[in-house]
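The material for today's practical consists of a large collection of protein records. Getting from the letters to the tokens is the skill we practise here. To make this concrete, we reproduce a full record directly below:
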Amino acid sequence: MSKRAARSRKEIPSFANEDQERRFWAKEDTADYFDWDKAVQPTLPALKPMKSLWPTRGMFRTDP
């Protein structure tokens, strides 16, 4: 068992908004909060492949 696995996991704090959460995760290591050995690959059956990588005409309005 590695040292990282032997350590207890920290509790994830609650955040007032996404910006606060983003700043928190930018400086913290997720391995201190999650056991990645127990992670599972998510299945996303409702996703559809994109037809193109570029936005289509009219997708974004540029006029005022």
